[in-house]
């Protein structure tokens, strides 16, 4: 038996049927909260154009792939989610493209003040020119749907150690909700969104519940609790994809999430870096 609920990458339907309506593709770039040779920080890409957090973005993509990005959504200000905005700026500096960067005011404030203030690197909000900069910051109003590229996006507050938002990304045929970092109480979000696919976090194992509580992250028990609440709210389960593991807890998380999958009989898997998943 497989030791855990590993996500299975789908066939690349985008290449197989280029003329048909394409399903949403989620490319998983990083699924950890600590970086090493073997682990990458949290970052994902939808349909090659929309980045969801950028912790481990640039080390996961070729320059060509980075050049296809057109928008970035940031869930919160923590470094493991925003870091690669700086090297991405350098990649895009001579492209003539402006990338819209979406986030709540707290997130954008700190990204601007700490990463894009022009002290460590160029100020990509005014570079190469004020009229045509690499990045434009777009403040998100929670619970109010807005348009990003071909998607309708809705930001929803989630509990975390700093102000944070999860985002529902809706295409013609699928709704993906990315929680970013979130702790117990994340189920409050289910009142506002009804996703087909839930991309979420489990940072610690069940024995690390105190750590998870202090840093406002989820354990497998908390995930189960949140999914039971989802079922109660919507009368069904979403497909669930788990990331943001703390590396020392990874083996435990994979085993305990597998137990949640079996117990709930739901489609739950733990992601790995470099997976391409066809949604839903
Ligand atoms: Zn965080
Ligand atoms: Zn994080």
How large, in whole angstroms, is the Cα Rg? 18 Å
The residue-averaged pLDDT reads: 94
> Which CATH architecture?
4-Layer Sandwich
From the N-terminal CA to the C-terminal CA, the straight-line distance is: 25 Å
Q: Report the count of strand segments.
A: 14
**Portion in strands:** 15-25%
List low-pLDDT spans: 16-20
CATH topology: Metallo-beta-lactamase, Chain A
Count of discrete domains: 1
The run of helices and strands is HEEEHEHHEHEEEEEEHHEHEE
Q: Which overall shape is indicated by the principal axes computed on the Cα atoms? A: globular
Please, how many helices?
8
Output the CATH homologous superfamily: Ribonuclease Z/Hydroxyacylglutathione hydrolase-like
CATH class: Alpha Beta
Structural class assignment: alpha/beta
Q: Which labels suit this protein?
A:
280 residues, alpha/beta, Metallo-beta-lactamase, Chain A, binds zinc ion
What secondary-structure arrangement, pairings included, does this model have?
Blueprint: H1 13-16, E1 24-30, E2 43-46, E3 50-54, H2 63-68, E4 71-73, H3 79-82, H4 85-92, E5 99-103, H5 105-115, E6 135-139, E7 146-148, E8 151-158, E9 164-170, E10 175-178, E11 197-201, H6 209-215, H7 220-234, E12 239-243, H8 250-264, E13 268-270, E14 275-279
Parallel strand pairs: 3-4, 4-5, 5-6, 10-11, 11-12, 12-13
Antiparallel strand pairs: 1-2, 1-14, 2-3, 7-8, 8-9, 9-10
The structure holds zinc ion (2 copies).
């Amino acid at each position: 038996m497989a030791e855990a609920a590993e996500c299975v990458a789908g066939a690349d339907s985008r290449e197989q049927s280029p003329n048909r309506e394409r399903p949403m593709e989620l490319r998983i770039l990083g699924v950890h909260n600590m970086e090493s040779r073997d682990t990458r920080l949290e970052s994902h890409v939808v349909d090659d154009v929309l980045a969801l957090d950028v912790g481990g973005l640039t080390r996961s993509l070729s320059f060509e792939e980075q050049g296809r990005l057109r928008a970035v959504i940031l869930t919160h200000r923590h470094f493991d989610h925003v870091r690669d905005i700086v090297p991405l700026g350098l990649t895009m500096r001579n492209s003539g493209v402006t990338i819209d960067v979406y986030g709540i005011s707290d997130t954008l404030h700190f990204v601007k003040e700490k990463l894009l203030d022009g002290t460590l690197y160029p100020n990509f909000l005014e570079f190469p020119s004020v009229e045509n900069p690499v990045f434009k910051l777009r403040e998100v109003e929670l619970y109010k749907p807005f348009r990003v590229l071909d998607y309708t996006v809705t930001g929803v507050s989630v509990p975390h150690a700093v102000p944070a938002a999860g985002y529902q990304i809706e295409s013609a045929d699928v709704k993906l909700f990315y929680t970013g970092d979130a702790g117990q109480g994340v189920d409050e979000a289910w009142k506002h969104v009804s996703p087909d696919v839930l991309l979420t976090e489990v940072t610690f194992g069940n024995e690390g519940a105190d750590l998870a509580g202090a840093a406002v992250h989820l354990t497998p028990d908390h995930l189960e609790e949140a999914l039971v609440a989802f079922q109660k709210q919507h009368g069904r389960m979403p497909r669930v994809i788990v990331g943001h593991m703390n590396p020392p807890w990874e083996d435990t998380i994979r085993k305990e999430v597998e137990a949640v999958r079996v117990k709930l009989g739901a489609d739950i898997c733990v992601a790995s870096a470099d997976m391409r998943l066809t949604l839903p």
